[in-house]
Amino acid sequence: MPFKPKRPCSYPGCPKLTHDRFCEEHQKLTDKQYEKYQRDPIVKKRYNRTWKRIRDRYIAAHPLCEKCASLGRVTPAQEVHHIKPLSQGGTNDVDNLMSLCTSCHSEITAREGGRWRK
Q1: C-beta separation of 7 from 18 below 8 A
Q2: Where are the domains of the chain?
Q3: Which pTM does this prediction carry?
Q4: Is the pLDDT score of 64 beyond 50?
């Protein structure tokens, strides 16, 4: 299946072409700015290096989106979702985690009243 054509990076003045919103260089920069200025410090403490290790192990063990799999679709998982959010007393235990594709994770997050993701 052919890819969509590349488009210019959305960062002001950047002429690089990309398949995503920003080129690799500016994606890192915008992620860093988000972490520094917009992300809640309490949330930042919950999602630290330990969480990244847990997430990586879970994705390796569950490489497909669990919600899509229940609907008979095969979609690679990109994100790990807490079934019971940490803010509501959930934990990082394996029985509280679910591997999801970005689309399914965005849908669940929007339904629960969280921030909408791309």
Answers
A1: yes
A2: 22-111
A3: 0.60
A4: yes
